[in-house]
Amino acid sequence: KATIKNLVKPFKSEGKIAKTETDEKLGTTTWTLSNGAKVTFKKTDFKDDEIVFSARSLGGNSLIPDADFNKTQFAYQALTEAGVNGASKADLTNYLAGKQVSVTPYISSTLEGIYGRTNQKDLSTAMELTYAYFTGLNYSPEAFNAYKMKQSAMLNNLLSNPQTYFASEHAKFTNQKNPRFIGILPLEKDWAATDYKKAYDIYKEKFGNAGNFHFYFVGNIDEVKFKNEVLQYIASLPTTGKTTNFKDTGYRSISGDHTRVYKKGKDPKSMVQIVYSGETPYNEKEALALSALGEVATIKVIEKLREDESGIYGGGARGGMYKVPYGNYSFSVSFPCGPENADKLTKSAIAELQKLIEKGPEQKDLDKYKEGELNDYKTDLKDNNYWVNALSKNQLDGSDKYDILNYQEKVKALTVKDLQDVAKKYLTKNRVIATLMPEDGWENTKKEDGKPAAIKASVTN
Question: Is residue 291 within 8 Å of 459, Cβ to Cβ?
């Protein structure tokens, strides 16, 4: 088969820039194009040769009816396996060899979009590939079936891993009232019920409406060249003129206090997760305080468990509050430990959280958090990816677009009382404790010498 000369046949674009707005504070320029799409870009010199970009349109799979969503939710990740414009995925890999181009389309719960990375030299190829994903995704049941077979083969191995089993079973428990939840991993029956054609049609419909998309580019952009590429490959994308937004499906995780134990594996290894979560009106100050409380609790709880109990190797706490798709919060503590210590360490961790509720954190721990956070922030401000995420955030959640510039002041203003207040408010109800234990009889398994390798624990919302 002949190698591809170009992914998209040369064409003359009629696209134009209808409006230009600049923002001196953020250092950005935003073009509204004749097809309704918006492009915001920021020129930086953080890296010699890097351009990071994303595009997002509001809606995502929240707009898909339950029955259709359950038939398609595992198919979206397989769609790009088919390639674009008649070129297979293998052809595409050859075409991009030696080029610094990565473009990935996705459909999430609230968004459809792409994210990508390139450099000045290969920007034209990255734009061409973006155009191809919007307009020319191939339809290939063969590619979908090959993907399905590969995934199914991996599945059994995954589910025999105690930690994957734990995450999978516990997610079923917390999502028991959500008809849109059929599992974090597709089982054979889920693949059998998956409708590839339906998923493909939904993708085509969403990406066929470029006017609902906002594109963001950050990096060492040459404006003249960049403008030509935007007019050629973004301003020419088809649009329907329809505006969409995501919606709240109304489904929630279980509420109340629960304790669950899951048994899997023969090795004497356990994992404990303590999660407080629920619905709450979003509050910016509380959101930051809850996030800070997670960092402070990591210092306190892990210090206590590791030093006094010498029972754990890794672990941490994290807190957050989210606006989308509805106001909600989550605070979790998770750590791996020996099964003989799981119960004792769980009580100990909860006792440490109780101290944060009753007395608030120590000033020195809050200061340590602030110092770390402000150092990270200084580094982040010189990162193209950080800027792309910050610039695109307010499109989704309506937050202040200058948050990225005011963050330092907000962190500095946090007090011990702010953290104690959110601890009192959010760490006293809706607590789910989940513990992974080995299967019965683990006590007889001879313990191997030395400690197990550290496992980085994290909880996804």
Answer: no
Residues 185 and 269 in one domain: no
Say which CATH number the domain at 184 has: 3.30.830.10
Domain boundaries, position 187: 17-233
Domain count, the chain: 2
Q: How many CB atoms lie within 10 A of CB 364?
A: 9
Task: Dump pLDDT digits (tens) for 276-285.
Answer: 999 999 999 9
Q: What is the DSSP string of 68-132?
A: HHHHHTTTGGGGGGG-BTTB-HHHHHHHHTTS--EEEEEE-SSEEEEEEEE-TTTHHHHHHHHHH
Q: Which residues contact 428 (CB under 8 A, 6 or more apart)?
A: 357
User: Which of 150-154, 209-213, 309-313 is least confident?
Assistant: 309-313
**H/E segment holding residue 165:** helix 162-174
Regarding whether 376 and 298 lie in a shared domain, the answer is yes
> How do residues 388-432 score in pLDDT, each as one tens digit?
999 999 999 999 999 999 999 999 999 999 999 999 999 999 999
Cα separation, 276 vs 297, in Å, equals 14
Distance of CA 244 to the CA centre of its chain: 21
Tell which residue, 1, 401, 70, 17, has the closest CA to residue 229.
Answer: 17
